[in-house]
Amino acid sequence: MKETIIIEFDEEKLCALELELKKERTTVRQYLNKMLDELYETKVPEPVRAFITGRAARPKRPTKIEEARHEQ
């Protein structure tokens, strides 16, 4: 599941930043996603990251409603 983060930032600064990042063929969103990934890698201990990765890779068990639909 993805989560949305909302932050406030000065509009003129954002426009200037977007123009500069466009020269590098990236966007504020892409750059912030990369920075968040790097922050996660440095701050969250490896065993916790491994646990989260394992949970995400595990197939989701069907609910009883989904099982009933499949049986029909």
Features:
single chain; 72 residues; mainly alpha; 4 helices; elongated
Task: Give an account of the 3D structure.
With 72 residues, the chain is mainly α. It has one domain (11-71). It has four helices and no strands. The mean pLDDT is 89.
Secondary structure elements and pairings:
Elements: H1 11-23, H2 28-43, H3 46-57, H4 64-71
The SSE order reads HHHH
In DSSP terms (H or I, runs of 4 or more residues), the helix count works out at 4
Low-confidence stretches: none
Mind describing the biggest β-sheet?
none
Compute the number of strand runs. 0
Tell me the structural class. mainly alpha
Mean pLDDT level: 89
Q: How many structurally independent domains?
A: 1
Whole-Å distance between the termini? 29 Å
Radius of gyration: 20 Å
Give the overall shape, derived from the CA principal axes: elongated
Subunit arrangement of the protein: single chain
How do you describe this structure in short?
By secondary structure, the chain is mainly α. Helices cover 68% and strands 0% of the residues. The chain has one domain (11-71).
